[in-house]
Design a protein that fits this description.
Blueprint (H helix, E strand, L loop, with lengths): L1 H24 L3 E10 L19 H15 L4 E10 L4 H10 L4 E5 L2 H11 L4 E4 L16 E3 L4 H14 L4 E7 L2 H17 L2 E8 L12 H11 L8 E5 L19 E3 L4 E3 L10 H12 L5 H20 L4 H8 L27 E4 L4 E5 L26
Parallel strand pairs: 1-2, 1-3, 3-4, 4-5, 6-7, 6-8, 8-9
Antiparallel strand pairs: 10-11, 11-12
Length: 397
């Protein structure tokens, strides 16, 4: 056995220079991409632990480029991703610069309205990969053929939580939503999920955002003291669902509600595209590589940016091409799949260009479950039990 190992190692050692020489003989072709992050001023989050890092999203891009180059260097392919920050007021100008430079793939980290505007601006000059915006309308009536959604939709996230709650036999929900438009849209998604999976929303309440600091005595203490009274005398329920996209109140719900009930949605048990606690399916090694690179845990924006750029890299590897049109065509074909450390291949829905993916249900420290849940079946893919399925779509490219 020892002799065989030595021979095999010797063979690999001899093959290494040959592979390197072959790679060196190929002309290097570069696949260009950019990550455009549109930052919107916000009040500080409720918890200082949730303060966004300066390299949010960009760190995921850097890991993706390293991963793409690992395979690409043996095929004469090189990958790059420009990192661009903007505000809602400067986003169009930054997009125009990228288009003028001929960048064919642009990953966006922006809200729904800005993402839609950037997609219309890009037109047929670039493929936009949405790595943040979750709005269902972007995959429905406002869908665009030049956009692929690496970020999960609100419908996918709410369906994922609904499946788990129904498996737990917690069908009676007390829905508390914020007053911002994004909160209202998320609440609509939870209503749709409840109807889809047979849950009952026994009561709804709206938490009005009156402004103020979230971490000062006049801010968070006031919100904290409001919660027991705010949730008092609710109809009998199994779980409280919070719809708080702006992080105004939800984190103050666990352990502060009048009734002793679990909290889910925007706090407590949260549906996520990624969680730093995931360790299955090779995720531990993936987490370690990211943490070594960024010196912090991976966040959802990092994962979504990483998977967006990995889709480009995987397409280049499979097609052995760097032509943008070829890569886009392959990504949108039924032959495309990409590994995402979630236990199964990820593919793209042809009716709305949404990346199919399992959704993690996580607390701040552990991943409690992963949806789709086993009992929910589908004629083509169990992942299509999450979100808007083909018969329901309003998307018309």
């Amino acid at each position: 056995m020892t002799g065989r190992i030595i021979i095999l190692l010797a063979g690999l050692a001899a093959a290494g220079p040959v592979l390197a020489q072959q790679a060196a003989q190929k002309p290097v072709e570069t696949v260009r991409a950019a990550v455009l992050r549109v930052d919107v001023p916000h009040l500080p989050p409720i918890s200082r632990l949730d303060t966004p890092p300066g390299d949010l999203g960009f760190a995921g891009a850097r890991l993706a480029i390293l991963d793409n180059d690992t395979t690409g260097r043996f095929m004469g392919q090189d990958f790059e991703a420009l990192e661009v920050t903007a505000t809602p007021e400067t986003a169009a100008a930054e997009m125009e610069k990228l288009l003028a430079e001929g960048v064919p793939f642009i990953v966006t980290l922006a809200d729904d309205a800005t993402t839609l505007a950037l997609a219309d601006q890009a037109g047929d000059k670039a493929l936009v990969l949405n790595a943040r915006a979750r709005g269902d309308a972007l995959r429905g009536k406002d869908c665009r053929a030049n956009v692929i959604h690496a970020a999960p939709s609100q419908a996918m996230l709410t369906d994922a939580l609904a499946q788990f709650l129904m498996w737990k036999k917690w069908p009676n929900w007390f829905l508390v939503a914020g007053s911002h438009p994004e909160d209202i849209a998320l609440a609509d998604a939870y209503r749709r999920a409840a109807t889809k999976f047979g849950a009952k929303i026994v009561e709804e309440r709206t938490y009005e955002d009156t402004g103020g600091s979230r971490r000062s005595d006049s801010g968070h203490v006031q919100v904290q003291q409001q919660m027991p009274v705010f949730t008092q005398r609710a109809a009998e329920h199994d779980v409280l669902i919070a719809a708080d996209e702006n992080g105004v109140f939800a984190e103050w719900l666990p352990y502060e509600t009048w009734d002793a009930r679990p909290v889910a949605g925007s706090a407590g048990l949260v549906p996520r595209s990624w969680a730093p606690s995931l360790e299955a399916w090779g995720a531990t090694q993936f987490q370690n590589r990211f943490e070594k690179l960024a010196t912090r845990p991976m966040r959802e924006e990092d994962y979504q940016t990483w998977i967006a750029l990995r889709m480009i890299g995987e397409s280049a590897t499979r097609t052995q091409s760097t032509d943008p049109a070829t890569l886009k065509q392959f990504m949108l074909s039924d032959k495309f799949e990409v590994a995402g450390f979630k236990g199964q291949k990820l593919t793209i829905r042809d009716w709305d260009h949404q990346l199919r993916q399992p959704i993690l249900l996580a607390t701040p420290t552990v991943t409690a479950s992963v949806s789709p849940q086993d009992q929910y079946l589908h004629q083509s893919s169990a992942l299509d039990t999450l979100g808007i399925d083909r018969p329901e779509t309003e998307c018309q490219f």
